[in-house]
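Quick one: structure tokens for this chain, please?
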Amino acid sequence: MHLSDNDKDTLISMADNAIRHYLGQETEPAIPIAIGDYSSDLQSNGASFVTLTINNELRGCIGSLEAYRPLIEDVISNAQASAFSDPRFTPLTLSELENIHIQVSVLSKPEAIDFSSEADLLQQLRPNIDGLILEDKGRKGTFLPTVWESLTTPEQFLQHLKLKANLPANYWSDTLKVYRYTTECF
């Protein structure tokens, strides 16, 4: 999906509005009443992550890996969850509101990667393009493509993703599943 600049502006505005609404700073409804008033791309089911930062430091990041509701609703819900329900952080406060930076990432549909070994998987990874979902034995983790900014090699990216999924960094199994996706970030 390639969103128009207007759709991107709408999603950022709605994410900001959802956070402000929760903090009692806006009178507009957090979820649009008439979804039909938005573009077909925003009405279509979409998966997104909303990342909040203050002074370039992560302050919250929550999202959906699969599209199961209209994109505009997904962004609104994930904005509120990033601000108030990310278990790594305390809920966002009113005093932090003016310093918050909102980034929305709209995900493509995840595609399974076929690989025969860890070396084969590492060769197939596309730095700065791929987001990954890793799952095995009931454990699951994901990294957005923006994580390549701090974990620059495929080896680092995969090892840290395993740790995020509560698996050892050197973990390997024949039942391991890995999916890739791309994002449109704004």
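The domain at 5-107 is CATH 3.30.700.20 (Glycoprotein, Type 4 Pilin).
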